[in-house]
Amino acid sequence: MIEMTPELRAFLGANRAITMADLYTFVLTDGTVVRWTDADRNMNTPDGRLFRADGPSISRGGIKLTRGIQTDTLSVTLTQDETVQIAGRALVPFIVRGGLDGAEVMLERAFMPMGGGPIVGTIVRFVGNVGQIDDADANEIPLSIVGRTHLLNTAMPADLFQRTCLNTVYDHACGLNRADWAVAGIVMGTPTARAFSTNLVAPAGYFALGPIRIGGVTRTIKTFDEGGNITLALPLPAVPSAGTEFVAWPGCDRLPTTCENKFDNNVGSGRNRFRGQPYIPIAETAV
Fold it and tell me: Helix (H, G, I), strand (E, B), or coil: what is residue 25?
């Protein structure tokens, strides 16, 4: 069922001469919000959101409304414009290097009087996440937006029996406050897109497997040594310069000793947040 405000309902009921536009909201995995419209002018919604018309040219496929539960997919194509940037980087390189992977996308239809005028109201047409991007080229980037119901296709129980913890560090089940563990740092030395020195002071491995937010993107730290040197699991879209600021979080290997000794989040803390079964026997082959 499509919901609309009383103001929009009254407007649609009283007017035959209306015009419409699509509004796209992209929420990246690092929290960055990008809003574009396919209209020929910037659009301001009644709740104060600005959708810019100077982004890429956007086209999309149709939306089918059905009863019941099924996984829907929306096809959206972004046509490159050399002036369009996200987080200070050109559109195509940013997306090809994973900048939109997993981003949440919301498509809204905006309604306004024919010939111009402010938006009277919007209705949400589709919400989903960016899927795998395979066919991008220098001019066009096809996106497959997969509806949230695809999560229901997961063919496994809610909990699996395994030696390591089922939680992801800092999620709601882990219970640790992400803000309390954030550590600010500065890039030093001669950095590359995947490795650089920092001013962080911590034991070797302290930040390994933890996230780092730098240059508007988030990456996973692969290794961290006592000298403050960081290696990333995936390269950054651009090489950071010395002096670039970042925020890093300590990582977790999901072992009970790490939960207890590093984060004080296991039995000894009284919280007992560890959700693994560490005493499951190791798989062995008998001849």
Answer: strand
